[in-house]
Write a structure and sequence with these properties.
The structure is a homodimer. By secondary structure, the first copy, chain A, is mainly alpha-helical. The first copy, chain A, has 7 helices and 3 strands; from the N terminus they run αβααββαααα. Chain A has a 3-stranded antiparallel sheet with strand order 1-3-2. The interface between A and B is large, with 67 and 67 residues. Chain B binds a DNA duplex through helix 2 and helix 3.
Chain lengths: 183, 183
Amino acid sequence: MDERTLLLLGMLRIESQHGYQLNEFIEHNLARVTDMKKPTAYALLERLEREGAITSRLEQEGARPPRKVYAITPQGERLFLTLLRESLGSASVYVIAGDAGMMFLDALPLDEALALLRQRLATVREQAAALDRVPAHKMGLGVALTIEHQAILLHADEAWLSGLIERLASQGATAGAGQPTGA
Amino acid sequence: MDERTLLLLGMLRIESQHGYQLNEFIEHNLARVTDMKKPTAYALLERLEREGAITSRLEQEGARPPRKVYAITPQGERLFLTLLRESLGSASVYVIAGDAGMMFLDALPLDEALALLRQRLATVREQAAALDRVPAHKMGLGVALTIEHQAILLHADEAWLSGLIERLASQGATAGAGQPTGA
DNA sequence: GCGCGATTAGTCAAGTATGACTAGTCAAAT
DNA sequence: ATTTGACTAGTCATACTTGACTAATCGCGC
């Protein structure tokens, strides 16, 4: 939740914006940095305003519904810096989504497990390729860094997965069928 | 949430257990696979029982408070397999906790950013070292795989971070001071 | 034979997050 | 003029998650 607050404050620090705008940018450009959803962003903005980190001013354009344009306050700037220092200085033990499945790999026949892992590998490759296609220019240093970070992790993941598949496949060739061992 | 359900079902599939026992094992041995907390586990167990994936039977030992021992049902077994296939076959775009901070790296003076990144690197190294110390034997194939997975990702992270620090440091040496660029 | 910290087993209130929905506006094709 | 599909802007009920707590037992030193 602190990461999310940091993200919103950081974006408002760069430019005052209304909720919809913030959310659009996050959905379209920052899907790899956060998976925060719209209602969460609105809720956080409300809380930040209550706490004095940001202020809002109503703005109307044409006959459209009025919208709240948020701006960061000096207090919010201080909060931003605190959160930023916290975030940069630490590396929370990270939990890889998807590893729970890996734990029970041997609950499936080897053949099927291999097929599924190959499918996963394809997805990872797609993601890695998509990332490599993102143009490096035209984004701040920070965003470029997160993309780079993602990319190297994905490539490491890809290498490991494809190695794992090979190991399992050759093991399967050695042994006979591919029945679950049953724990 | 599906990952968490999968984990609980998988554990119950191996052995019927009560909530406390499940949680102990998770906290002590699976902190790297999931960060699920105790009340969440209890809540999920309740839901799974309501849905018929597991059943419970009260058990009393001595004068201790009675506890619910959960066992997986055939329906739960089917759910387990479905979730397992889903989990193994896909690679959800993963979001790296901590990258939000990276995005705003240039909000800090270069010197400070570097100091923080070095601190982060130290943490990553610690984690990697701790993982490498985990004995490879004495745990099922699955658990060993998740540890291995974690380890290679941590090492990739470490390499990237230390490269980044070097790049930033040399860039700082070239340019003069280290003031925020402000944007 | 009793106080005390550790362990066992679990619950609860409060905070967080989100899928689904509302309610309008705009562009442009019919 | 009017239907239609996409966009703008946000809200709400519900579900999920967890920090902090309860309440009992056990072991162990005194």
